[in-house]
Amino acid sequence: MRIALNLGAACAAAVLTATTAATATATTSASPAHNDDSVIWGTVVSGPDLKVRDEPSTHGTVLEKMPYGSEDRVKCSVRGTTVHGDPHWYWLEGARGWVSAAYIDTGGRHVPSCPSSQDPCPQWHDRDHRDCPCAYRDH
Question: What is the pTM of this model?
Answer without folding.
Answer: 0.64
